[in-house]
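tool_call predict_complex ligand=nicotinamide-adenine-dinucleotide
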Amino acid sequence: MKILITGGGGFVGARLARTLLARNELNGQTITTLVLADQVAPPADLLADTRVQARTGALLAQCEAFSTEPFDGVFHLASAVSGECELDFDLGMRSNLDSTRTLLDALRRAAQSSGKPSRLVFSSSVAVFGPDASAPLPGLVADDTLPAPQTSYGVQKLICEHLGADYTRKGFIDGRAARLMTVTVRPGRPNGAASSFFSGIIREPLAGVESVCPVHDQVSHPVSSPARAVEGLIAVYEASRSLWRPPRPEPARTQRARVRHAGGAARGGWQRGARSGAF
Ligand SMILES: NC(=O)c1ccc[n+]([C@@H]2O[C@H](COP(=O)([O-])OP(=O)(O)OC[C@H]3O[C@@H](n4cnc5c(N)ncnc54)[C@H](O)[C@@H]3O)[C@@H](O)[C@H]2O)c1
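tool_result ok
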């Protein structure tokens, strides 16, 4: 099978690529080709694998070619991160929203030619939850909690979830979205994510470097290890549609708040934490 990872040169994307190559199969099928599309080249160990092809450049510019290159599976991870999107609105709209729509359209055209829609996992974020002070989060945040993003990044992620759901409803792709928690510890230098300090407060002291925690020490926030994040993305890919939790009966008031997205978000909720979704 042929797999595409957008953002395949990034923190999570490169780890996902290594895990898939080590497994050599996904959903019971042998992986023959793994295409890593990113504006930066993937790490050397990945490039050395004969199953890997690197496509280096902005995703928007690569999508036209993807429309004539059918993929069995796509992990769509390429994204400008939260802090970058706040600093540069146009970057976020281009890298996150425009690129995702163009990718979905390319996959749609590829499916029309091949007759087989690609299965796509979109890496969304807990940033879709805000939280909005006027709509407090419940004790347990789950798939059916009302998203209320408070950042451009969170809004872009939520729009893309809905786009994925509609392309799936129309049969253009088989889409799913996973709302990732903050993945920590991220090695190397801090990145432009507002949540970057969640890695910094662990990584820097281990290297003997001071790190300032910008939030109160009682703040709680959902985090996952890189290995668990990758495991979750693969589980979301491999889950059959029938495994997604069926809607439970709800009172009318809650029904209004119900949000449908690409087959459901990451399984399991996360415990409510102070301002956690804002990152
Ligand atoms: N790491 C986290 O804590 C976390 C939390 C929630 C959601 N996510 C999501 O998971 C995904 C992966 O996150 P990550 O931590 O690996 O981020 P990352 O920044 O390390 O990797 C993202 C990659 O996307 C590439 N990219 C960005 N814009 C691009 C464009 N326009 N064209 C081509 N490539 C582009 C970057 O070069 C980078 O290599 C992202 O979608 C992110 O929003 C991550």
